[in-house]
Design brief:
- Helix content is 35%, strand content 21%.
- It is built from ten helices and 19 strands.
- The strands form six sheets. It has a six-stranded mixed beta sheet, sandwiched between helices. A four-stranded mixed beta sheet has the order 7-8-11-19. The protein has a three-stranded antiparallel beta sheet with strand order 14-17-18, with helices on one face.
- The chain starts with a helix and ends with a strand.
- The mean pLDDT is 97.
Length: 365
């Protein structure tokens, strides 16, 4: 992890920052290799120029952090202690006081920011958000391998869910079946709340599964992902349980066509926003533009939704090593919705689709 820390410090020096405080769970994991949910407690990676990296965390987690691979300094604190005072005293002993500190302005609460200012009253603050999101944007080979395995498990989840479909089964029962199967594969946690929607409910892009029962001639939408060794997957598939209408078939074919066109265009040098426009223009040409109500996709890695946001105004050029989703959708009230989503890994040439569950319309009889 030291190379990531060195790279971050190098980026922050361009902002004249001689230190930084990183406390979001995802970025702490990225820099330390240790994942923890601190709840109300404070955790953070503190980087100060010419000083070994510091991990501020509860005493009870010191051993776990070491076992996860953290080889640098630790400032541990008991629950009755003020962690900021512990950090301040440690730095005084090291005769190190920051002058310009980079922080995650998109993450720190006002309360945490005020506490930080009280601890370091003479420090000027700058933003580390862009620097660290740019580092996380380009994945290493190891990260690619982890994302690929996470994608394979997502494929397995969809396959299991499709096999569980039968007349009268509820959305939540299908969720339970596929998540149980993934637990047996060693998955501890889904990357977000699993979505299984039947019939007209598929027209809600972020619908909630409930006790709705599957009926003949329903569309069924699956949206799910897993966390595998700290990295997330995300896949969406829509299938037909029995016969569907000509309009629903046209909607499906339109979404698939839009997705295929955007995937094909996902090459190095193409602007992110251009992909959204390609998919959106095709859907509009087919008469469903007003029913495509969200962006084309999002970055993916340690978090399910991370930089970049794949919307039409994003001019960021695609680079080799990026991982993002392509997920156009059409949602027509009372008719139903279709979304097809895949994870892509970009190269110097054609993109690699990490999720591979079939996309041709599957009719479950």
């Amino acid at each position: 992890m030291l190379d990531r820390i060195d790279n971050l410090l190098a980026e922050l020096k361009k902002q004249q920052a001689d230190s930084c405080f990183i406390s979001s769970t995802a970025n702490v994991y990225y820099l330390s290799g240790y994942y923890t949910d601190p709840h109300e407690r404070i955790i953070g990676i503190i980087l100060v120029d010419q000083l070994d990296p510091i991990f501020l965390l509860p005493k009870m987690e010191e051993k776990d952090a070491r076992e996860a691979g953290w080889k640098h300094l630790i400032v541990g604190y008991y629950d009755h202690e003020n962690p900021w005072h512990c950090l301040q005293e440690f730095l005084k002993k090291q005769e190190k006081q920051p002058a310009v500190m980079a922080i995650e302005k998109n993450h720190l609460t006002i309360q945490r920011y005020n506490e930080l200012q009280e601890t370091f009253p003479n420090v000027t603050y700058t933003d580390a958000t862009e620097a660290i999101q740019n580092l996380r944007l380009i994945k290493t080979k190891k990260e690619h391998d982890l994302l690929r395995t996470a994608a394979e498990l997502a494929d397995f989840g969809v396959k299991t869910g499709v096999e569980a479909l039968k007349e009268g089964v509820t959305e939540l029962e299908v969720v339970a079946t596929l998540e149980h199967a993934l637990k047996k594969q060693g998955i501890r946690e889904m990357s977000f709340q699993t979505m299984v929607l039947f019939g007209p409910k598929t027209a809600s892009p972020h619908g909630n599964p409930d006790k709705t029962k599957l009926e003949k001639n329903n569309l069924v939408l699956f949206d799910l992902g897993v966390i595998y060794e700290g990295y997330c997957s995300d896949i969406t598939r829509t299938v037909a349980f029995g016969n569907i209408t000509d309009q629903q078939k046209h909607i499906y074919d339109t979404v698939l066509g839009a997705q295929e066109r955007a995937v094909e265009a996902s090459k190095a040098g193409t602007a992110v926003g251009e992909l959204d426009k390609i998919a959106r223009n095709y859907i509009t040409e087919q008469g469903y533009g007003e029913y495509f109500t969200h962006r084309l996709g999002h970055g993916l890695g340690i978090e399910t939704h991370e930089y970049p946001s794949m919307h039409s105004e994003n001019t960021l050029p695609i680079e080799p090593g990026m991982c993002f989703t392509i997920e156009p959708g059409i949602y027509v009230p009372e008719v139903g919705g279709v979304r097809i989503e895949d994870m892509l890994f970009t190269t110097n040439y054609m993109p690699i689709e990490l999720t591979k569950y079939p996309k041709t319309l599957q009719i479950i009889s």
